[in-house]
Amino acid sequence: MATTGKIRSNAIGIFISNESANSGTFSGNTYGDNTSENDTWEIVACATSGTFSGSMEVIDATTKDNDGEREILTSSLSWTMTADGLVEYGLSSSVRSAADLFTLWKAKTKVKVAWTTGLDGDLMYWGKAYITSYEETAGLNEVASFSVNFEGDGTIYKTVLDTSKAVFNLNT
After folding, report:
1. What is the pTM for the complete model shown?
2. Are residues 132 and 87 in contact, defined by beta-carbon separation less than 8 angstroms?
3. Fewest CB atoms less than 10 Å from the CB: which of 58, 68, 111, 113?
């Protein structure tokens, strides 16, 4: 059942599909359309914050004819997802740990990522991306932390989750 009302930010996370980013085409309104429908989405574990960000490039088309008032033409869209979290070793295989993220980054692996609650009927923004930066920090008398940036490679989709067509592992 879809989440209603204001959504607590703790409910939203970044998920990585276990399916290759080069498989499946998703073009319908409900996740799972035109796919093998066997994706298992694993949450980025121990995240303390996350961000989805989309932007649009513009081309300046200002001329003397419009008396110096700026005029633009739209250009390409780009998007990123970022997560910060705590490093924890020994997590279950049903989530994506900091060590998993490092491995994906080092191998230059394209992944399918999603920004969602993982609950049936809720919205999901998802697409294919590369990890373009990965960082771990371990300050004196602090908990070790990580930061990861996923940069979109192609279209970002907005779909409605149908959890009968995909599994979302929400926690360890």
Report:
1. 0.87
2. no
3. 68
